[in-house]
């Protein structure tokens, strides 16, 4: 079977609700931050399905032995938030993946050229090839930032087929770039919007996610 980019938009009322709150220009920063946290929680919950490795065993209930399944503690799990805005999704992701290591990657787009540059890289030199990596960034617009993040990860041994991207709004240019470069990668998004405007903003989108999370 040929692999392709998988993009899931989970049809969940909580995801729809918090997306609506985040989209509304009248939502103040404090509530916007809560909405992004909730989206991080529920999208990470969905992303963990058939991704977090488990091990089967037997436990003794007070009454009898019983087949049981635990999360496998041997397989490394990592969350990579793309600063700044990816930090907004991190807290929710950590409620689902409390034992994951967190490796920060700071990327910022040049407002004119839309080219991303890296100002902080806390990735390890090499990842265990079995590592499950969950990247958080609320906005996949032109795709420059997420492609930079994927390049930094894969050159350190990360397997794209074991990688999940959690975002809030994904736009076609970013999804097309990911699809061409990383078949087998999986994206979880609250929504896919139609366009990116000349200034690099997703329309209708939700505006500048980083500025709205941090009130700047
Ligand atoms: O797909 P792209 O066109 O690269 O755009 C998406 C990027 O833009 C935003 O970051 P920004 O550069 O605004 O930095 P910030 O998170 O610090 O605000 C967003 O959080 C993504 O990382
Ligand atoms: O619409 C957009 C596009 C990129 N980054 C944002 O924060 N918003
Ligand atoms: Mg920004």
TrEMBL record:
Domain Phosphoribosyltransferase: start-end pairs: 9-216
Name of the protein described by the UniProt record: Uracil phosphoribosyltransferase
Origin species: Sphaerospermopsis reniformis
Cofactor: binding details: Binds 1 Mg(2+) ion per subunit. The magnesium is bound as Mg-PRPP.
Top-level taxon: Bacteria
Family: Belongs to the UPRTase family.
Cellular component terms per the entry's GO annotation: cytoplasm
GO molecular function: GTP binding; magnesium ion binding; uracil phosphoribosyltransferase activity
Keyword Methyltransferase among UniProt keywords: no
Lineage: Bacteria, Bacillati, Cyanobacteriota, Cyanophyceae, Nostocales
């Amino acid at each position: 079977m040929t692999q392709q980019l998988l993009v899931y938009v989970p049809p969940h009322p909580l995801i729809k609700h918090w997306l609506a709150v985040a989209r509304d220009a009248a939502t103040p920063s404090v509530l916007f931050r809560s909405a992004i946290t909730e989206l991080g929680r529920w999208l990470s919950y969905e992303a963990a399905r058939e991704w977090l490795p488990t091990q089967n065993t037997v436990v003794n209930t007070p009454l009898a032995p019983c087949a049981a399944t635990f999360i496998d503690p041997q397989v490394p799990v990592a969350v990579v938030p793309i600063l700044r805005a990816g930090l907004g999704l991190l807290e929710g992701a950590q409620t689902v993946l409390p034992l994951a290591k967190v490796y920060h990657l700071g990327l910022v787009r040049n407002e004119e050229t839309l080219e991303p540059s890296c100002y902080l890289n806390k990735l390890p030199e090499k990842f265990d090839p079995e590592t499950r990596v969950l990247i958080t960034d609320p906005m996949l617009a032109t795709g420059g930032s997420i492609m930079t993040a994927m390049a930094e990860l894969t050159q350190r041994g990360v397997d794209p087929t074991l990688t999940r991207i959690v975002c809030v709004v994904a736009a076609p240019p970013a999804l097309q770039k990911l699809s061409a470069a990383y078949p087998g990668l999986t994206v979880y998004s609250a929504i896919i919007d139609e366009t990116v405007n000349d200034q690099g903003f997703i329309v209708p989108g939700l505006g500048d996610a980083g500025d709205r999370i941090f009130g700047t």
